[in-house]
Amino acid sequence: xxxxxxxxxxxxxxxxxxxxxxxxxxxxxxxxxxxxxxxxxxxxxxxxxxxxxxxxxxxxxxxxxxxxxxxxxxxxxxxxxxxxxxxxxxxxxxxxxxxxxxxxxxxxxxxxxxxxxxxxxxxxxxxxxxxxxxxxxxxxxxxxxxxxxxxxxxxxxxxxxxxxxxxxxxxxxxxxxxxxxxxxxxxxxxxxxxxxxxxxxxxxxxxxxxxxxxxxxxxxx
Length: 221
Hints:
Blueprint: H1 9-62, H2 77-85, E1 90-94, H3 100-103, E2 141-145, E3 150-155, E4 161-169, E5 172-179, E6 181-186, E7 200-205
Antiparallel strand pairs: 1-2, 2-3, 3-6, 4-5, 6-7
């Protein structure tokens, strides 16, 4: 007669102890990696925003007579990308009509959440459940920076661009008006996840530099 034998209490306790030890070793490491990735992304975004802002100041001082971004003599996105290329270091450039080399098969557009300029890195809030405009590289002139960051430029020579739902604050969408350039970033190039607030970010450039503070639109007539 064959007896069915289960695990003894000692065996169960030993197994649970082993699982607990493994979890205690691996989980903190995983959490640290996630936090490190966020800190790295935040650092890259801030560094790139600073570089774009510094380049803008150089451009308005050296490339214009009026010292404003609408007087740079550019009529399209490729021109403004190349103008910034004089003050930034590119490794690859791609026109708005031929983005394949820069995107390397990644999707140009994603619409997962609004952008929230109230966050430290001016990133989209990945926890925002509202549907809205995410970071979009479609139709932009692209470049890869020396550190691997993907940058996209969309230029409006009249500096009257209204970036609809570019930002959200207190669950309301706002327009950033009088924008000369909408700049999109992907901190790790074409690599995944390609999501707003995780590796993709966006910010506007005004006539004199980066615009980082949205003005709340009045609801009164």
